[in-house]
């Protein structure tokens, strides 16, 4: 009993990225959480981080695409659940964020694992031609609907699309009228969620974790409705 547990555990370790799993609230990630708090950088919160870790453990992705790097927090976290030899591509358009992300990724010793792609995702996505096991959408909320076709083009069948901030502080789910400025974002997000839910190639579940997380599994050919 004890022996088989041991075997399983070391099996897991062998599959992940050099066993360098960084934990939220510890070491570099803790420092980054404090930096994000001080500078109002909207990184994933603790419960979303924990969700990503569990999902990542289940999917064991070799290739992850992230849209919205910010300071590199979620990318560094996700590097811990990569399959051995796995890679993350992450897109960011803001110069200051890019500088900070490079600095943090270097400090984590993950320059060979995480590729930060500078540019606006609407320009970058059409230029990418890879297949991803997991995609983490975490950029400007009003743009998700525009990014979706490119993401689905690159998400492998059997892969997982995770979209963050889909409930936008409750505004997306509530029937309450929202201020004019936010109305477009909320409407775009509602359209995004409807599109996810109505896509016959996807199974989607929306969780109220953090600021709202949509999980969309892209079906295998054999799992399509007849
Ligand atoms: N994923 C990060 C947080 C990302 S915050 C984490 O949890 O650690 C959202 C980031 O997306 C911001 O840094 C913003 O500059 C970037 N962003 C927003 N819209 C973008 C776009 N269209 N292209 C590239 N980056 C974008
Ligand atoms: Mg987010």
**Cofactors, ions and other ligands in the entry:** S-adenosyl-L-homocysteine, magnesium ion
Global structural class: alpha/beta
CATH second-level architecture: 3-Layer(aba) Sandwich
The structural domain count equals: 1
Amount of helix: 40-55%
How would you name the CATH homologous superfamily?
Vaccinia Virus protein VP39
CATH class: Alpha Beta
Kindly estimate the percentage of residues that lie in beta strands according to DSSP: 15-25%
Q: What name does CATH use for the topology?
A: Rossmann fold
Q: Could you give the distance between the termini?
A: 43 Å
**Mean model confidence by pLDDT:** 92
Are there runs of 5+ residues with pLDDT below 50, and where?
1-18
Sheet with most strands: strand arrangement: 3-2-1-4-5-7-6
Radius of gyration: 18 Å
* Form type: globular
Query: Which series of helices and strands comes N to C?
Result: HHHEHEHEHEHEHEE
The total beta strand count reads 7
Largest beta sheet, briefly?
Answer: 7 strands, mixed
Determine the number of helices (DSSP H or I, runs of at least 4 residues).
8
